[in-house]
Amino acid sequence: MNENHSNQLVRLTAAQLAAKLAAREVTAVEVVQAHLDRIAAVDGGDRGVHAFLHVNTEEALAVAAEVDAIRAAGGAAADELHELAGVPIAVKDLIVTVGQPTTAGSKILEGWYSPYDATVVEKLRAAKMPILGKTNLDEFAMGSSTEHSAFGPTRNPWDPDRIPGGSGGGSAAAVAAFEAPLALGTDTGGSIRQPGAVTGTVGVKPTYGGVSRYGAIAMASSLDQIGPVSRTVLDSALLHQVIGGHDPRDSTSLPDPLADLVAAARLGNVDGMKIGIIKELHGEGYQAGVEHRFNESLELLKQAGAEIVEVSCPNFKYALGAYYLIMPSEASSNLAKFDGVRYGLRVLPEEPPMTIERVMGATRAAGFGDEVKRRVILGTYALSAGYYDAYYGSAQKVRTLIQRDFDAAFAKADVLISPTAPTTAFKLGEKLDDPLAMYLNDVATIPANMAGVPGLSLPGGLADEDGLPVGIQLLAPAREDARLYRVGAVLESLLEEKWGGPLLDKAPELPAPELPAPSLAETVTSHGGSH
Amino acid sequence: MAAINRDDVAHLARLAHIEMSAEELDRMAGELAVIVDAVKSVSEAAGEDVPATSHPIPLNNVFREDVVGHTFTADQALSGAPDSDENRFKVPAILDEA
Fold first, then answer.
1. Are A212 and A250 a contacting pair, CB within 8 Å?
2. Does B68 touch chain A (CB under 8 A)?
3. A322 — contact with chain B (CB < 8 Å)?
4. In B, which residues are within 8 Å of A187 by CB distance?
5. Which residues of chain A have pLDDT under 50?
6. CB atoms B46 and A252 under 8 Å
7. ipTM of this predicted complex?
8. What is the pTM of this model?
9. Does domain A88-315+417-506 have CATH number 3.30.870.10?
10. Secondary structure class of A194 (helix, strand, coil)
């Protein structure tokens, strides 16, 4: 296979790859190898994307070869292959996998191998989708920039000096950099949608309980949700259909049958639908270029026959505060299991006595990064006797108010719309010393997690002032994920018509130059330019 | 609501089993004070009559059949353990008898 062919393969969507595989125009081994080559070309090095913490070369090629053999043999087994069989995928390293390490982006789990697969991973294996590897994330999914990974940050394929969002920056960047057509993410306060927004990709947080969380290392159990990451709305629907549905091993898993999300994505019609602008989630505090692209999307939807209405969610102003009480409280409890006894790191104190308490203290001090420590301490505080009612109890009441706001809004509109994040991708390091500024990035995504409703982010274009991707967020009532795909697919096709192709066609070539341009003045001349 | 100070953080770090240096306690106290200040409005948001929501989509009484499901072998369960002995997790001393 020549390099050009390989370059073309990685730019195909999952749906396009599936069609080519089914028509036997290409083999699964060729498809997987093309993506492994792309990873080798763009992921490593000082200025590489660094989306992957582990690349699963051998197993991915073996699964691909198995798919090719089944197809070549024909017959019933070939007919029964899942439509995504042979289409490769990357998995966020918060989701456990047999045969590959799972770190959760933390030193405390470095080198750990899970003895079991997450339910979503079992489903990928059943569909014979080759797993390319495990993607980078903020430690235990705590962050909005992937800078809190113990294994170094991921770089945004649009600009290597900027963050790819977080916590699932690795999954979003892998998809944006054409290292994988699909990825799995997890979203507790926006960790699928905000990385999607800042990398120009699509990400979906399903209804709470719509996708099994069994095997996702828990941060905040009442908020966490696994979901799809892709370059198109249809591809997310295809992946959602693979991973969704009831799982008896997750007691919060919804028993409802999964709707036909792929059909919804293919329906493409918003005529007569009511789309609600959330008054509190745009305007002041949102970057001008974000606001501009948001308004442009509204105009396109209106032209396509949707009715745009305004809704007000007055209690959303408390959502961020309530989230930063509930999430750390649940996290402090969930992370208590990292005690240096059953798995992961054990660090002995420098001086005796070597009691379990002191071993735990030393292990957690060495194994957890700053952001994890901050959240565990904050959660321990919010759950302390004397503060519980004022903090955790009050935050749970706010959750009720947010649900009521959503109920009222969905009485007036079929779906809601807002920018996904208030700004485009910020610079690496810019908000690292200011945790609160980092948290503010999640202001538009958190309400969905608090109420359990589904949300989708899709690319809305580039901000005029910095040329970086802007995300548009759609929200639907609980269990109505299909509406997101229906509206998302329409908006995506209208925008791509306007751009003359996918937004990622406008992204710079990778690999990125080794050093930023200003300091390169002399070397560029001596190398005669790299492109 | 009271602000969070360095002594509070030291106490909380002990409860959470995270050893912290003096420098870390100073820094963490400062950062957490800012965060706690930013979230305190939450306590005034809802009235007495508003019920709490613990899970966004409540499912009550989720049961399964009382049958043996998948279980790990001892080797699998111990595969990630920092220390084990005779098919058991080996735990550091519980009491300080030194």
1. yes
2. no
3. yes
4. none
5. 520-531
6. no
7. 0.95
8. 0.95
9. no
10. helix
